[in-house]
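Example 3.2
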Amino acid sequence: MKENIRFKGVFIHPTAEVSDEATIHRGTAIWNQAQVREHAKIGMKCNLGKDVYIDAEVKIGNDVKIQNGVSVYRGVEIEDDVFLGPYMTFTNDLYPRAWIVNFELCTTKIKKGASVGANATIICGITIGEYAMVGAGSVVTQDIPAYSLVIGNPARITGFVGKSGQKLNELIEEMDNYVLLRNRENGEEQKIDKDLYYQTLNNNKL
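Structure, written as tokens:
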């Protein structure tokens, strides 16, 4: 890959449109027909796929992978190691009307290591917790706790995952405030809030 002369150590495809007022750090690649607006901040070693749109003032951390066709609108903050699947959708206005220009901007936060599956929709004003996993096609309407696996419309918690993304499918210890879960196949362990764990079990029995 040939690095761009405007942004040291950054690859920008010839068909991409990148504002000179954006900040982009070394090791990042921006592919076909992507657009990065003014004052956007993109960290190191990110990958922006074909037709990705990064709005003005958006903040993106390091090692973020944004797949084809994703639009990241103003008001969205993305931390390190986040994965955004193809054609997932953000919003930034809770009450959209075509004639309202000065709408109230809602902040949406995607925390470190979280993954959002293809074609999922994220309603603005929420936080997706660290290493949470949003299933493909889900519609997320409320905050998602760390390490939670959510699916559906509206998305609901159906289980928990580790940093690897694999489901934690075995309860190995129960303490006063948390449970310790493990993946049987890879041995990965993770503490989960005890109340959240049992609430999730009860909800999935209904």
